[in-house]
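Lecture notes, continued. The same structure-token format from the folding unit now serves as the input rather than the output. Read the line below as a description of shape only.
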């Protein structure tokens, strides 16, 4: 690749930026010049300068209230830059921020908002940011509840995803078990949610067992078995029920019970 053109572009872009700074003339063209500087330095492998100008593109755009298409492209460039710099966690947070801005722009399309918020929540989970992950999942549940109520597939699905993160990512089986308890209470009266409820019984009993709550497991188990028997996939689900309980007690180091 011919790098000379990038070297030649930098002084021209600098002069244009300086002229616009003197005139206080800030618009999308101004952001594109900052972005251009960032990409030139990136191609020349001056990553420190590249980061400076790409970040300025985003920060200036936010400060000036400019909603330019170049902002979204800048997040992508900055994420790629951080990968090249060996900072993948920074790259992921660029993607998170881009997704958050997309949510604000999407407006009334709930399904798209939910998809974007889910990506944000899982990115936070990946990096162990419990507070923001849980907060984002609760935003999803609040959004669904405000439009459809709790008695629908989407609410129960995302509630299960939240419980999974509580247990497997953040090691909080109590919170995870409470969510599954709520899912069961909401869904067991409706035939359309039988599969979701069965899987929630599996997780609920496993999370209780992983806390060493033998009495709670013994109390809930007959109810869970009875519910499994009411489904069309009795044998495999009932077997899986006991397997999950055994795994839970194993996690609690209750080996005799397991």
């Amino acid at each position: 690749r011919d790098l000379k053109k990038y070297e030649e572009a930098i002084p021209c872009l600098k002069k244009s930026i300086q002229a616009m700074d003197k005139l206080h003339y800030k618009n999308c063209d101004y952001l594109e010049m900052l972005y251009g500087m960032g990409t030139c330095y990136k191609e020349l492998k001056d990553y420190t300068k590249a980061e400076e100008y790409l970040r300025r593109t985003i920060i200036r755009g936010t400060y000036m209230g400019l909603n330019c298409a170049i902002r979204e492209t800048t997040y992508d460039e900055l994420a790629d830059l951080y990968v090249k710099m060996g900072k993948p966690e920074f790259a992921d947070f660029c993607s998170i921020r881009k997704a958050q801005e997309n949510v604000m722009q999407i407006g009334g399309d709930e399904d798209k908002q939910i998809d974007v918020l889910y990506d944000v929540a899982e990115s936070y989970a990946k990096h162990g940011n419990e507070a923001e992950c849980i907060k984002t999942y609760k935003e999803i549940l609040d959004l669904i509840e405000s439009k459809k109520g709790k008695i629908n597939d989407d609410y129960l699905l995302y509630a299960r995803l939240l419980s999974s993160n509580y247990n497997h990512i953040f090691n909080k089986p109590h919170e995870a078990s409470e969510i599954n308890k709520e899912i069961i209470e909401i869904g067991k009266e409706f035939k359309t949610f039988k599969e979701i409820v069965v899987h929630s019984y599996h997780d609920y009993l496993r999370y209780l067992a992983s806390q060493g709550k033998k009495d709670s497991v013994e109390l809930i188990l007959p109810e869970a078995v009875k519910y499994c028997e009411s489904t069309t996939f009795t044998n495999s689900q009932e077997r899986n029920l006991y397997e999950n309980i055994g795994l839970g007690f194993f996690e609690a180091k209750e080996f005799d019970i397991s």
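Point for the exam: The first helix runs from residue 4 to 23.
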